[in-house]
Write a structure and sequence with these properties.
alpha/beta, globular, P-loop_NTPase, SF1_C_Upf1, seven-stranded parallel sheet, helicase activity, DNA2/NAM7-like_C
Length: 1219
């Protein structure tokens, strides 16, 4: 039995004989309650709902959820929940009562289906649970819990507590009743044990607690009664079998979670009603000198400074951006409590990482704005008056206009170079504002809503180094996390009690196995790893089985000794760290683990396995390995894959559902209204709807005048002129005619028409007509007066049609300020509706994606995508997450990927390689200030280096343990006298540009690199400036392959020294670069973007060369090259040969990390010199020339190094031999 899930799909199931899948939709479409009058009708309806909402099929039945959330569906649910329940064994119920076993419990099963509680359609699911919350006391308190108590009181329960059969837990209809009522027999519900009944109720109440914390008092009393029933059940099942013990343990765990959640919510609500400052300060440590929000010594620093992270707007406010007080930044150390205002645990851990990660986003933005403001303040006001507000502040200092403006964050969607340079004074850039309210602010005047100035300006400040949209999903995911629901708290964010318990437990057995392995009788089948077939079972509860599995894997499978042990240990730990240096098979063991997990998917029933990586490249490689092993049920989320093999595995929705269609309609309606309001604000012309909303309250009499046809003639499109009595006219048309003066124009035309007709009639055509008394006399047509009055506004409260055009314009101008304010309010509401429709559309697509993903074996995504699709992942409820290259992943990214259903977390990486990349140097561990924040310290590194965390670690073999014959088989680099060499020089670095924006570079090293560049090699350098110059130097001769992240930074112009690369973005490289001919291409990367990859030959340009470095006491710097992690990554990429060029004396200074030891080792082995040693391929013992100039090196190659040798000397990678 598998019950480790949020839903009840696996233990409250419908009988297929009685369930009709189409019945539920038919009932929901009917108005009224006629289809649910009898208990039999209700049972059949619930059976159909159970079948529709089950997770045991991949049919899109989301229409049932939409139907249940509709007004008609909620009325039907209310009707069923208000029915009295009976537990009599005869199963005979009246119209006033229903059977608890066959009606009430199936209803609970419907309300706890995963399709409902984990759906991405949050609005619809909240409507259903809102009804349950409203009827909590009646439904749960008066019907459900008393029925469970009666069942426990009956002797039948004794059988229930000792049996292992699901079908015999509750009485089934007798054979006689089967014969008497065929429909009742078909619809009979297969019941779960009493433990599962209580578990279903616990999970239902937990949904109410999580969704409606403000109504916690309603569920608290019900939960107290439920806790008593759980305790009774626990007492009755003490002597049960293994399944009963497992069920009882699961029930206790979830009941404790529910009780803790209620207590936590009650405490939080009490804190909101009282003064938070007084409550918190009494419990703060004495060492805490300042805190966030109300806990700060002088109060909140700005309008976005709060003590609780769920109240902090992710988007910075104007007040926050311009605030000069440093924000509250907590220390990132779970052992440190003196400066923390929250107790240890998940809440504090999430608070720390949210604040630090958000500050990493804010720092570049605030720095850019502050620099811009400083520039404006220092600008000559007389020469640049357009950029300065002429008004003075209270202190007598004039400040830039942007200080009084709001701050609007936007993401550049399109940057067309031609459009940028097309016009002299206008540059067109397509941006998307991050906050809908900003659209309204863009049209709001600076000083007053009553006057608008065409000279108002907004300042556009670009921060190319910050990719805001990569931060937002992670921050939102952390904000939305429920601390009490997150797994692995005792390992990742332990409380004081858990730390104490953890420190007293020995290393053996301290890590619990994954929950899914605790099911009675569960064993892993490892036969998929055996090379020659056979059977191999792994029982984690049997130490002998564990030892035997390791021994058999070492003998009969490809893993080596350490890999076999690591694989078995990882399968038995709910959180496991696989650590090892390059070349120890970390990726291989990750693939083997996935093979085992996929091979056992039927017995594990854990749903799809999630694979996350920091880079798209690493993710593509891992998924391609799975394809090589025959696994094709793979879904890759995100659209930045460069792998052609994975194109068919990208997740794309194929059909639209009702929710998506409705969202599109709502979005289109909101967009039309927004465009209309925007045009009105820009043009100053208001349509009738906007004017009517004003007049209906301010001047109803004038409003009614527009609802009828105007007096006077009407000239239609066909040229005909009619009187107003002949046709009716809408008020919209009437107002438009009035505002534009069309009625006045038509009166003029009418008057001219009358004049012309009178003249024609006055000229007789027959002189004898006047004698004919019987001839009809013509009637003179009336003329209309054209008003020309010029009255002031106070006298314009009467007839609107008698006003002159001047008066009409005056009246519209008088209305304008109030109408503009109304439009601005409407515009904000429409933007909110647009965002709501957008969210509904995304939720609709996510619901479709959920159906697709639920049927997959593997879901692959980057860490940023996992945060972006957090709601979708939580709805899929993956229980196993594997993270490759976890040492490069920020801990906040891992936290955003966790969900309440996660039971097994596998982290693979090397904590001695590159650390995660951060934007702010002062938040990194390499900074003296940032050591207390350690934002760039991954969860992987923290757990590995922590004394207690080392128990998670599974070590793989070091390179020294690899077979020496494999290393010795690597070929020598042709044409070089050594496979490893450091070329020493004293050529200085290039001068930086006067603005300090250029990254470090060294022209001499570029020249030397060019001499050795041709061929299939990789050139690595720490600085983007050097990479840019190397690319420009080689691009005319070779196809240069640059990493997508480096290319993005080069395109954006974000070249800075000693900075980390930003999170990955979409590459703009042409596809032809990935298909370049191997003999004519060269790879250039920065160090930070080459981890996880290797090359046969690697050339390294270290760039830094401070010529003022005379002795060890000099102040020469090598920047972030001194980082041990970056050094390890740099020196572990080569397979056959590695050649470095740099200033050896500078690198050997004691303060430069690992480099002094490295230079000492190279010097002892005679691998440092003033030039590269060139050797004849056929006479490697002859090394006659040491070249230090690019020209001389090329001359030596072209004229043969050893003149007596007839064989051509080959420089590494040279395409063709040169004589």
């Amino acid at each position: 039995m598998h019950i480790s899930s949020e839903g009840t799909d696996d233990f409250i199931v419908p009988t297929t004989a009685g369930a009709q899948i189409g019945l539920a939709m038919q009932v929901l479409r009917r108005e009224g309650l006629e289809a649910l009058q009898s208990p039999l009708q209700i049972r059949m309806f619930l059976q159909s709902c159970l079948l529709n909402l089950s997770n045991h099929h991949s049919v899109d039945t989301s229409g049932i959820l939409l139907g249940l959330a509709s007004e008609t569906g909620l009325a039907k649910l209310r009707h069923i929940m208000m029915q009295s329940a009976s537990v009599n064994s005869s199963n005979r119920t009246t119209s006033l009562t229903v059977s608890f076993q066959t009606v009430t419990l199936p209803l609970i099963g419907v309300l706890t289906r995963r399709s409902l509680c984990q759906t991405t359609l949050k609005r619809e699911s909240n409507l259903v649970y809102g009804l349950v919350q409203e009827l909590c006391q009646q439904f749960l308190g008066l019907h459900v819990l008393p029925s469970v108590s009666k069942l426990m009181d009956q002797t039948l329960v004794q059988t229930c507590s000792s049996t292992t059969s699901i079908l015999t837990c509750f009485p089934q209809p007798s054979a006689q009743s089967h014969q008497q009522n065929h429909h009742q027999r078909d619809s009979f519900q297969s019941m779960a044990p009493l433990h599962c009944t209580l578990l279903a109720i616990v999970r239902l109440i937990y949904q109410l607690v999580m969704r409606f914390p403000e109504s916690i008092t309603k569920t608290a009393s019900v939960t107290k009664t439920l806790d008593g029933l759980v305790d009774r059940c626990r007492q009755q099942s003490k002597t049960g079998n293994a399944k009963q013990v497992f069920l009882s343990s699961t029930l206790d765990t979830e009941m404790n979670r529910l009780s803790t959640s209620i207590q936590d919510n009650i405490s939080e609500l009490r804190g909101l009603r009282e003064q938070p400052l007084q409550i918190k300060l009494s419990s703060l440590p004495s060492q805490l000198t300042d805190g966030p929000g109300a806990l700060a010594l002088h109060g909140p620093r700005n309008d976005n400074d709060h003590s609780m992270i769920n109240r902090i707007d992710i988007l910075p406010t104007r007040d926050e951006v311009l605030c000069k007080t440093n924000p509250f930044l907590p220390i990132n150390d779970y052992k440190e409590s003196s400066t923390q205002f929250l107790p240890r645990g998940w809440s504090r851990h999430l608070d720390v990482h949210f604040r630090l990660y958000r500050q990493d986003m804010m720092n570049p933005l605030c720095a850019g704005i502050q620099a811009f403001i400083h520039l404006l303040q220092s600008t000559d006001r007389r020469a640049d008056q357009d950029f300065v507000d002429p008004k003075a502040t209270n202190q007598g200092q004039r400040q830039p206009e942007c200080l009084q403006r709001q701050v609007a964050l936007a993401v550049v969607q399109e940057r067309d170079i031609q459009q940028l340079s097309k016009l002299k004074h206008i540059a067109h850039i397509h941006v998307s504002l991050s906050d809908p309210a900003s659209y309204t602010a863009l049209f709001t005047p600076l000083h007053s809503s009553s006057s608008r100035s065409s000279s108002e300006k907004w300042f556009m400040i670009e921060c190319p180094g910050t990719f805001f949209e990569s931060f937002r999903p992670v921050l939102k995911a952390i904000q939305a996390s429920r601390p009490l629901a997150l797994p692995f708290g005792k390992y990742i964010a332990p409380t004081d009690e858990e730390i104490d318990q953890f420190s007293h437990v020995s290393a053996a057995g301290v890590i619990d196995p994954p929950l899914y392995t605790s099911a009675p009788g569960f064993e892993y089948d490892l036969s998929v790893l055996l090379e020659n077939g056979g059977v191999l079972e792994l029982n984690l509860r049997d130490p002998q089985s564990v030892d035997q599995a390791v021994a058999v894997l070492r003998e009969r499978s490809s893993p080596d000794n350490t890999q076999a042990l690591a694989l078995v240990q990882t399968l038995g730990r709910e959180i496991a760290l696989i650590s090892g240096p390059p070349g120890t098979g970390k990726t291989k063991i990750g693939i083997d683990l996935m093979r085992v997990l996929l091979h056992n998917k039927q017995t594990m029933t854990c749903g799809p396995k999630v694979v996350i990586c920091y880079t798209n490249h690493a993710l593509d490689q891992f998924l391609e390995h799975l394809l090589d092993n025959g696994y094709t049920k793979i879904a890759r989320l995100g659209g930045q894959s460069k792998s052609e093999r994975l194109q068919d595995y990208s997740l794309r929705p194929y059909v639209a559902r009702q929710a998506i269609a409705e969202a599109f309609q709502a979005a289109e309606s909101a967009a039309l209204s927004t465009r209309s309001l925007t045009r009105a604000l820009k043009s100053g012309y208001f349509d009738w709807r906007q004017v009517r909303e004003y007049l209906i309250f301010e001047n109803p009499a004038q409003c009614r005048q527009f609802e009828g046809s105007p007096p006077g003639p009407i000239m239609w499109d066909d040229g005909a002129i009619e009187t107003p009595l002949r046709r009716s006219m809408t008020s919209k048309v009437a107002y438009e005619r009035w505002a534009t003066g069309m009625d006045l124009d038509e009166k003029r035309v009418w008057n001219r028409h009358v004049d012309k007709k009178e003249k024609e009639e006055a000229r007789p055509t027959n002189i004898f007509d006047a004698l004919d008394e019987a001839a009809p006399k013509s009637v003179m047509a009336p003329r209309y007066d054209i008003p020309v009055s010029d009255r002031p506004v106070p006298f314009l409260g009467g007839d609107v049609w008698s006003m002159s055009m001047k008066e009409r314009r005056r009246l519209i101008e008088y209305w304008s300020p109030d109408i503009i304010r109304s439009i601005e309010e409407d515009l904000g509401q429409h933007h909110l509706c647009l965002e709501s429709a957008k969210d509904s559309k995304l939720c609709g697509y996510d619901e479709l994606r959920r159906l697709i993903l639920s049927d997959m074996d593997v879901i692959g995504m980057t860490t940023s995508a996992s945060a972006r699709f957090q709601a979708l992942l939580e709805s899929v409820a993956p229980k196993i997450i594997l993270c490759e290259e976890a040492g490069e992943v920020l801990e906040s990214h891992i936290l955003s990927a966790l969900s309440p259903t996660t039971q097994h977390l596998i982290l693979i990486g090397d904590h001695l390689q590159l650390r995660p990349q951060v934007q702010t140097y002062d938040l990194s561990s390499e900074s003296s200030v940032g050591k207390k924040y350690n934002l760039d310290k991954s969860l992987f590194e923290r757990l590995v280096t922590d004394a207690c965390g080392r128990r998670f670690q599974v070590l793989l073999g070091t390179p020294s343990t690899l077979p020496s014959k494999i290393v010795c088989q690597y070929p020598d680099v042709g044409g070089m006298g050594s496979n490893l060499f450091f070329m020493d020089h004293r050529h200085p670095e290039d001068k930086k540009d006067p603005f300090g924006q250029q990254s470090f570079s060294n022209t001499f090293e570029i020249q030397m690199i060019e001499a050795l560049a041709p061929g299939d090699i990789a050139i690595l350098t720490p600085y983007l400036g050097q990479l840019s110059k190397i690319r420009d130097q080689l691009k005319d001769r070779f196809v240069v392959l640059v990493d997508e992240r480096d290319e993005e930074r080069l395109d954006a112009g974000a070249i800075r020294g000693d900075t980390e690369a930003p999170p990955e973005t979409k590459s703009k490289k042409d596809a032809q670069q990935t298909k370049a001919m191997l003999q004519n291409h060269i790879t250039i990367r920065t160090i930070d973007n080459y981890q996880g990859e290797e090359a046969k030959i690697v050339l390294i340009s270290l760039v830094r060369s401070d010529t003022n470095t005379i002795d060890e006491t000099s102040s020469g710097s090598i920047g972030f090259l001194k980082s041990p992690n970056r050094t390890n990554a740099l020196l572990s990429r080569a397979q056959h040969g590695m050649f470095l060029i740099g200033n050896a004396r500078l690198m050997a200074q004691p303060k430069h990390g690992l480099w002094p030891d490295i230079m000492k080792e190279l010097g002892l082995s005679d691998r440092i010199g003033q030039g590269y040693p060139i050797a004849c391929k056929n006479h490697p013992e002859t090394k006659r020339i040491m070249i230090s100039k690019q020209r001389r090196l090329m001359e030596a190659v072209l004229s043969r190094v050893v003149k007596s040798c007839p064989v051509v000397i080959i420089v590494p990678g040279l395409a063709t031999p040169t004589i």
